From TrEMBL, chains A, B:
Residues 44-63 bind DNA. It comes from the Bacteria. Coiled coil: none annotated. Keywords: DNA-binding, Transcription, Transcription regulation. This is TetR/AcrR family transcriptional regulator. The keyword Glycosyltransferase does not apply. Residues 21-81 form the HTH tetR-type domain.
Amino acid sequence: MSPAASPRAATTPAYRRLSVEERRTQLLEAALSLFAHRAPEDVSLDDVAEAAGVSRPLVYRYFTGGKQQLYEAALRTAADALEQCFDEPPEGPLTARLSRALTRYLAFVDEHDTGFSALLQGGSVVSTSRTTAIVDEVRRVAAAQILAHLPVTDPGPRLHMMVRTWISAVEAASLIWLDEDKQPPLVELRDWLLDHFVAVATATAASDPQTADVLRAALEMEEPDGVAGSLARRVLPVVSDAAHLL
Amino acid sequence: MSPAASPRAATTPAYRRLSVEERRTQLLEAALSLFAHRAPEDVSLDDVAEAAGVSRPLVYRYFTGGKQQLYEAALRTAADALEQCFDEPPEGPLTARLSRALTRYLAFVDEHDTGFSALLQGGSVVSTSRTTAIVDEVRRVAAAQILAHLPVTDPGPRLHMMVRTWISAVEAASLIWLDEDKQPPLVELRDWLLDHFVAVATATAASDPQTADVLRAALEMEEPDGVAGSLARRVLPVVSDAAHLL
């Protein structure tokens, strides 16, 4: 019987007290995974305690402001993760960089579907000026990253408006995509959004000299099998009948 | 003294009791003009009573739900007005029709600046799932009008997504425009949004046969001095150096 003399020691890991920061992270991760796939009103502190395997009083001790505070903290965690999606080294054609960042962004949308919709569609019980500010900060970081990659240090109002409206279009397309059971496939949605970016940049370049300079420099670095080249070859047959406009 | 014998009759209009519907309309108009230029939290029922020249109990009698109910009713009135902006006879080049509708829409944004921002930026004390539903209904009507003008009766997912993301871009651009003290001039903003529409439709046509058919038919009706012709002539010099992509 000697091998079984101390069965608990063999099967139970040594008990280790989590630090305050580790416990907080554990609770936030549990909360985020719940908020990601349920509407905020369908998540209770009991659910979070159960998902994290802790008591409800413990959750309350860490988040004295209750569900609202927990939601905002989980949103802050999600916003940090989303901002990391935009990190991309400044190498290679611009559309290839944008494609990689967009792939990560759309994977995030895919993984946090219900929470993403609830957050951006508004009217949620937990939406406040603070949650709006967190979302706006993510948009600001995304715009700053794109402008840094163009690269532009002093963007004029037109270039800024172009980038910010494209980000809005990406959000709107993501919501529609979630609403339509994630159709078309993520890669097709991404490629359409990349075409969309090149098209809007080109249209803006038509009336804004700064955007025109940026676009010319970006197109020089594009490769024939990249986004811009593929779009140009597919657009030509569509507009070839419109010579009467030139 | 005889001409002044009855001074009140000469200067005061005969008292007429407003019907319930007329009174309601009067209160809603007063509320809408206040909500248009102040944040919802800065409008009280006292303010509405004063603006309409009636007692506060009267306002409460018509809107027993208090400010929230009044706000939602005023929003409903604004939504109706906004939906009328999209009415346009199906005649002439598509971009000319879109230009007229967009001119009316942007004039509405200009006239309801603060209220428009507060409504769409979210996090407002009066935003609820009902206010979100009213705004979504306006977007739905706008998309249906554009699709009817294309004209398409059975839009596929790509065409639908193109139209809906452009509407999001219009909203985002409107908010940025309000935030930047209404710069650039409204006409320049409108013309950029029209270029934006043509560009995104063209990029979508590059990968969607239905959009390609719609675009070809629309371009046939365009005139050289119209939106598409002007855009095409301004785009060519910008992209002419990118022949290596073809």
